[in-house]
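Collaborator request, handled under Task 6.
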Amino acid sequence: MCHSYGSGDDYFHHEKHYYGVHLAFFLYNGILIVLEYAFIGTVLHKKISELSLPSPVLTCMVIGSALPIAHWFTEEYVRHHIYDGLKVGCPMIVTINY
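Structure tokens returned to the collaborator:
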């Protein structure tokens, strides 16, 4: 579905832009990676390693660590309708206002 927002870039000039949120998102993830390396070899790491958690659980734990701030990365793309083309292939549950 195509959207028309008027002439040229007028749509983007009326929107408020937030600068630095992408950088903050990647800095946060970088800090998580540094903390992960610092965590290796500690007593807590050894106890968690002994649990023998399945790979999908570990994957969910890693992804879950970045989810609280994921909106920092995606919010501007959503506001500018970048993801509208994905709605066809990736159905979403949305609120319908009557």
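The cover message to the collaborator said: "The chain is about 55% helix and 0% strand. The chain has a mean pLDDT of 77. Please let us know whether this matches your experimental observations."
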